[in-house]
Amino acid sequence: MAIADEQFISFTTFRRTGEAVSTPTWIVPVSDGRIGFWTAMGTGKTKRLAHTPRVLLQASDRVGKVKDGTTPVEGTAEMVRSGALFDEVQGRVRAKYGFMTTLTKALSRLGPQGRKGLTYADTVVLVRLAE
Q: Domain 3-129 class?
């Protein structure tokens, strides 16, 4: 199964020290050959991506436990906040995850993102996988 077809992935970014930090995310294929997901600008992963675009992706469950028998895939990430690819990823995430997008949006307002004043799904992360 292609990584874009997975329900969840463990998305790993890197601190300035080189320490890896993994976060479970949804994932969708993008028409330009990349894969993407949405997040809120100001989260840890967006701060780390601003420092280094190098990422690792691996199939996981919803809490980020990687699936047995899978290996990490390296890629380069880019963040976008508007435009055609932003709109495409937004639509594909809604189509793939349905009601869960509405539920997580409501929960984000009550959780740490909402308390920090972050806007749910205002940023799309696009990842080009290494060849």
A: mainly beta
Q: 46-68 burial, b if ≥16 CB within 10 A, otherwise e?
A: bebbeeebebbbbbbeeebebee
Phi, psi of 57 (to 5 degrees): -125, 140
Give the residues across from 11 on adjacent strands: 23, 57
Domain ranges of the chain: 3-129
Q: What is the pTM of this model?
A: 0.89
Give the model confidence (pLDDT) of 85-110 as tens digits. 999 999 999 999 988 877 777 666 66
Using only the alpha carbons of the chain, give its radius of gyration: 14
